[in-house]
Every structure is written in C-alpha cells, then in structure tokens.
Amino acid sequence: MSESPLIIALDYPSLDAALCMADQLDPARCRLKVGKELYTRSGPAVLEALHGRGFEVFLDLKFHDIPNTVAGAVQAAAEQGVWMVNVHASGGRKMMEAAAERLEKNGLATHLIAVTVLTSLQDSDLQEVGLSDNLAGQVERLARLTQQSGLQGVVCSAQEAAHLKTVCGDRFLKVTPGIRPSFAAVNDQQRIMTPNEAMQAGSTHLVIGRPVTQAVDPMEALAAIEAELA
Ligand code: C5P
Known about the structure:
Layout: E1 6-9, H1 15-22, E2 31-34, H2 36-42, H3 45-52, E3 57-63, H4 67-79, E4 84-88, H5 93-105, E5 111-115, H6 123-128, H7 135-148, E6 153-155, H8 158-168, E7 173-176, H9 195-200, E8 205-208, H10 210-213, H11 218-229
Parallel strand pairs: 1-2, 1-8, 2-3, 3-4, 4-5, 5-6, 6-7, 7-8
Helix pairs in contact: 1-3, 4-5, 7-8
The structure holds cytidine-5'-monophosphate.
Cytidine-5'-monophosphate binds next to strand 8.
C-alpha cells in the first residue's frame, strides 16, 4: 500500500525483467504500471507476482469494445486485485457506464479511469478520423463524458490537468505521464513537466518510467523525485 502519487511504468518485454526492477523498488513508496506488452507476454502471472510483493498495480490495457465485452474485461482485471484499470473514453457513454456499473454491482473497489485523446495524436490526426473538434475541445468533451459515466478520472497530460481540474474538480483523478524530474533525460517525450510542476498543475498521480527504471540506482532516483515533490 502506498499513499505516494508515483506510479512507476514497468515497460519490459518479460516477466523476469519486470520483476528484477520491481525487486529494486519499495511498495510503500510507489505503485507500478503494467502495460500491453508486458501483460501480453506474461499474462496474469505478472499481477500475482507484483501483488505478492505488496505492490498496487495500474493495469494499463486501455479497453475499447462493446459495453458487455469491456465490462467483462474490467471485472476480470478487478477480480485479479488491480488497484486501477482503464478504458478509452471514445468507446462511449454506454461502454463506460457498463464497466462502472459492473464494478459497483460486484463490490469491486478498483479505480476505473479513461484515456481521452492519446497524446500521440494532433489536431490533423483527429480530422483524419472524422473528428471536427480540436484536441483541447475533444479532451474536455471526453473528460466530462467520463465523469458523467461514473468513472473516477482520466489519463491526461500535465498540460491538460489544470483545465480539467476546473472542469471536473479536484477529486477527479488526473493520471499524468510525460514527467521528467530535473535530473533526468527527456527521451522521446515531447511536452514534459517536472513532478512538482505536474502536481501544481492539478495532476493527482504521476506515471514515470525511464527516469527511474533506467537509473543506475532506481531507489535513489525515486528518492530524488520524492525530494523534488517535498
Ligand atoms: O519512460 P517514460 O516516463 O516516458 O514512460 C511513460 C509511460 O507512460 C510509458 O508507459 C508510456 O507508454 C506511458 N504514456 C506516455 N504518454 C502518454 C500515455 C502513456 O508516456 N500520453
């Protein structure tokens, strides 16, 4: 259990590599994110192994399908004990409501959040798939829809967090990747913020990968991020 806002992304192609990193981290000081590559390779075994080590897990599979299918997938994730799971808000109100209702009906406390617009997309990409609104407008529209559908929050960039705080309130979760501590390399991230800037902007949780996982001493990197936040 951790009250920290830090979620470390375990972006590894094997269970062994992921656990090797997890074993260098402290479940009292961070949560872990498992994404599509690791989960597709390792399956539920990775969740069991991380839970067994005391970590809370964000299962980042971004479900997007018909309501019944997504509700079943979200239920399956929750029954494996994950702390957080996500869907694509563009799957629509009925899909999100079905997923939220399924958790509630089964007394499952897993946090359910949604991706609004992938940050890899630009205005021109939205137009190409037939969306006439600009990016900021589409993010706001889908964040509102997410909240109305009974979900607890969104994945968003730190740049979007401040506005979404005024639109959806403080308690609506804003889980933010694209974070670079002042000591870290930028890598391939485009628009970055430091942990402190992102929290000031209204993020409630920070997803951080390589600045910790590629550090010579991951716990030292984690401690340096905690110090930046203090
Ligand atoms: O290593 P890094 O800190 O860039 O990792 C960030 C994590 O957040 C990765 O798992 C990446 O897939 C994810 N992510 C992101 N940007 C988004 C959404 C997710 O970097 N817009």
